[in-house]
Amino acid sequence: MLDPVRFLSNVSTGEMGYQIANAAKRSGFKVTLISGPVSLKAPSGVKFIPVLSAQDMEREVKKYFQSAAALVMTAAVCDYTPAKHQKHKIKRIHTHRMVFKQTKDILKSVSKLKKNQYVVGFCLETEDLRKNAIRKLRSKKLDLIVANSYTKSQNPFGRNKTSVLLIDKDLSEKRLVNISKPRFAGFLVSAIKNKLEKS
After folding, report:
1. Which own/partner pairs from 133-138 qualify as long-range (CB within 8 Å, at least 24 positions apart)?
2. Which terminal residue of the chain has fewer beta carbons within 10 Å of its beta carbon, N or C?
3. Does the 15-198 domain belong in CATH 3.40.50.10300?
4. Which one of the listed residues 10, 116, 132, 160 is annotated catalytic?
């Protein structure tokens, strides 16, 4: 929040996370869906936990992570947050300088607590997709990363079809092109279930 009536956000709709939660529920998983404000209805049969801030999300993720078999983090949490929340509405003036600080990396901090959980992260890149995905895979100690590319011709937000590059911790890769989010969610959940059954 910048002030009591304004906030910073991005164009993520939450569609991917909700589709994965739905697919996981249908596959027999006990699902906890932790979500920021979106216009989507939570899938029936899942435990739904609404949050407002990155701090709220971190707290809830850590709360449920220890008892989970897998964690899938699709959340597009902002990388930066205002260093100071204004108590009153910011007035219209010629120039207003806003100072930001880095938001804590939730997935990276949670991965440090990992025991036997299978952890999947997502990333969105506008350049060097594979290079940046591998860097995040390693730095966050993930089992799998799902890399989305954003270009003028490829918009992965909302109910659009998406093209993704999946890279696991052994650097095995798989590309899925122009796939619907429900279909991708089913594919991902099946892959996770297969990994858990083999572990």
Report:
1. 133/165, 133/167, 134/167, 134/171, 137/167, 137/169
2. C
3. yes
4. 10
Residue 33 pairs in a beta bridge with: 48
Query: Nearest-CA neighbor of 130 among 103, 144, 148?
Result: 148
CA dist., res. 27 & res. 51, Å (int): 25
Reading the block at residue 18, the tokens are 């909700």
Q: Is 132 a catalytic residue?
A: no
Phi, psi for 102 (deg, rounded to 5): -70, 135
Domain ranges, ordered by start, for the chain: 15-198
Cα→Cα distances 91→4, 115, 122, 139, 165, Å: 12, 49, 37, 41, 44
CA–CA distance, 20 with 123 (Å, rounded to integer): 16
Alpha-carbon distance of 85 to 133, in angstroms, equals 32
Q: Which of 90, 86, 6, 17 is nearest to 50 (CA)?
A: 17
pTM above 0.85? yes
